[in-house]
Please model this.
Amino acid sequence: MKIVLTVLLVAVSLALLVVVLMQPSKSSGLTLFTGVKDTFYTKNKGRTREALLWKLTIVLAIIWGILCGAMSFV
Model:
């Protein structure tokens, strides 16, 4: 059982690393000073690739935490 959990933990860790590295940087903070209004992209941000990567990061982080907890009991 411990070997299976270890393999799953390594796989989820690598997947989490890849997903985090695929996310774009949050350098859009300058739009406050440039006066850019809402665009189509900002209004539909929940349906973009960036939103998918963000949600996938959350799911993988939760799975990673559960696996770490399970490893401590085995």
